Amino acid sequence: MLFLNQVEKVYTNGSNRIEALQEISLKISPHTFLAIQGKSGSGKTTLLNILGCLDRPESGTYLIDEEDTSLKSDNGLAALRNNKFGFVFQSFNLMPRFNALENVIIPFLYSSNPPGKPKEAAQQMLTKIGLADRIKHLPGELSGGQQQRVAIARALVNNPDVILADEPTGALDNQTSQEILDILAELNSEGKTVIIVTHEKDIAKQCPYVLTLSDGRVVDLKKPGNNNLSNGGVTVL
Ligand SMILES: Nc1ncnc2c1ncn2[C@@H]1O[C@H](COP(=O)(O)OP(=O)(O)OP(=O)(O)O)[C@@H](O)[C@H]1O
Ligand SMILES: [Mg+2]
């Protein structure tokens, strides 16, 4: 369970104060599939970064499975982040000089609980994601969709409960975007919580929960109808 209570994030730029998030109070249950939408600058990335413990709120509280993140040291927070969250980005963020397999193995090097056989585990993950025949390819030798699949495999290696994806389809054509969304939906059906930021209406409308931000505030939450079989749940408090 992710629980934000009255979370605020302020950036100061000289004498300029930007209230990037204001009064965000939100509960996200395990197994939720949530899209976050809103205009450029509305605070989507800021919210995702706080959810993923890449950043801390200015005020308010953020509990992860009832643990108060504000009581954690930076190292404690980093450990929680590595165990709980997997990240996927618009621009894939793969290491250009490492092949697909090596890119997936990299997080194991930082894991507090690496598997016995990292290479086999990474290979398995790439196979699951449909890239068994591309493991020796460098990122530059893969299509955008294939690179994003490598990035998803990398996000999965530590077996996180939650996948956080900031515009994961932003750099992809429609068909490839749909393939990536289908992979994320399948991971959700296997039990992962998936939270994506998206500009694209076609993507958002396929997500059971859609949260809309405007000027750093939650202005809308769309929930699934009765006949939707989605697990999880989102509540705006
Ligand atoms: N490091 C920073 N320093 C100062 N201001 C920032 C910083 N990061 C974000 N902001 C400001 O905070 C607000 C929210 O930014 P954020 O990146 O969360 O928006 P976004 O909804 O993700 O936008 P986009 O759709 O363009 O990615 C914006 O007004 C932005 O200019
Ligand atoms: Mg953003």
Describe the structure.
- The chain has one domain: 3-Layer(aba) Sandwich (Rossmann fold), CATH 3.40.50.300.
- It has 7 helices and 11 strands.
- It has helices at residues 44-51, 74-84, 100-110, 118-128, 144-156, 174-189, 201-204; strands at 2-13, 16-28, 33-37, 59-64, 67-68, 85-89, 162-166, 193-197, 209-214, 217-222, 234-236.
- A 6-stranded mixed beta sheet has the order 6-7-8-3-9-10, sandwiched between helices. Strands 5-4-1-2-11 form a 5-stranded antiparallel beta sheet.
- Bound molecules: adenosine-5'-triphosphate (ATP) and magnesium ion.
- Magnesium ion binds next to helix 1.
- Magnesium ion binds at residues 44-45.
Q: Structural class given helices, strands, pairing? A: alpha/beta
Radius of gyration: 18 Å
CATH architecture: 3-Layer(aba) Sandwich
> Uncertain spans, ≥5 residues at pLDDT below 50?
none
Bound molecules: adenosine-5'-triphosphate, magnesium ion
What gross morphology would you assign?
Answer: globular
- Assign a percent range to the helix content: 25-40%
Mean pLDDT over the full residue set: 93
Overall tally of structural domains: 1
The string of secondary-structure elements, in order, is EEEHEEHEHHHEHEHEEE
Strand content: 25-35%
Count of beta strands: 11
What do we call the CATH topology? Rossmann fold
CATH level-4 homologous superfamily: P-loop containing nucleotide triphosphate hydrolases
Major sheet details = 6 strands, mixed
> How far apart, in Å, are the first and last alpha carbons?
14 Å
Put simply, the count of helices is 7
Q: Can you identify the CATH class?
A: Alpha Beta
How are the strands of the biggest sheet laid out side by side?
A: 6-7-8-3-9-10
